[in-house]
User: Fold this.
Amino acid sequence: MIGYYAHHQGVGHLTRLQCVAAALDEPVWGLSSAPAPEGWSSGWTQLARDDDQDPDVVARHGDPSAHGVLHWVPRGDAGLARRSAQITAWVVEHQPRAVVVDVSVEVALLVRLCGVPTVVVAMPGERRDRAHRLAYDTADALLAPWPKGTHDTSWPSEWAMKAWFVGGISRFDHLRPSPPPPRAPVDGGTVLVLWGAGGRTTTAADLEAARAATPSWTWVERSPGVPSDTPLWEQLQQADVVVTHAGQNAVAEVAAARRPAVVVAQPRPFDEQGATARQVEAHGIAVGCDAWPPAAAWPGLLRLALSRGGAGWARWSTGHGAADAATRLSTVGLPVPVRG
Assistant:
């Protein structure tokens, strides 16, 4: 059995869990503070929350970083103790041969302290702080859901040597994107705006200003607060340009659809989304922006996205990222054969 811990923030970690689990030929047991996703049929442990204390009290007395060594271990948090007990009890009962951690330094260390090999999902951005180094250094492997030569360029060699660069992992990888229609250079079309569940600083007024500055374009928003009855894949295929936040899951889905895109970073710890936006820009895959651009910039940005097209996403997404991750996982934790 493989264990898979998925962080509850947003939906990207849970989506990646489902993609990898579907590609594996063995049971996957999920662990998360979030409930099991709809349609999940394997084992699931919903962990106690460790973030229910008053933030002001934690800041004053909780020492959540343990003197800067970890990320989140607030003193006196009963939920933290309960979730740690849940994880160790689960390890004792089920004896997993490996656990994928997506993502938590503390869970990765706890599982490894129980003697279980860990595969830590590597994240974009600056991850060389003490806590991330602990998780990455002790991992048996690093699962990198992006192409080699992007977020790993400043890594120490020991991380790169054990990394699996599988490219983007999307629930749409099994689908074939439709080729873009032949078109002369135009200034107009449909813009699909994608927001995730992880929070954003871009406001409705910002979006309306961009819409007003591009009167020949039709803007369609899709987000947790603005749902749609149209399947997302269909909307992606219909869009001339996709404007998306720079979360890994959203970027992987746009990449799978091979759509021209403007990737706009939202503020995240460790500059996670900013790093992704800069990489797609640097490699000429899509238009990348560190923040929501001013309204006057949008006509040019949409034209630039169209001119770059969507074919460059093939460098980011192979179409079999989850299958490649599953193949690698199939060998982790197995006994080393004794040679005669």
Notes: Residues 78-94 form the longest helix (17 residues). DSSP finds twelve helices and twelve strands in the chain.
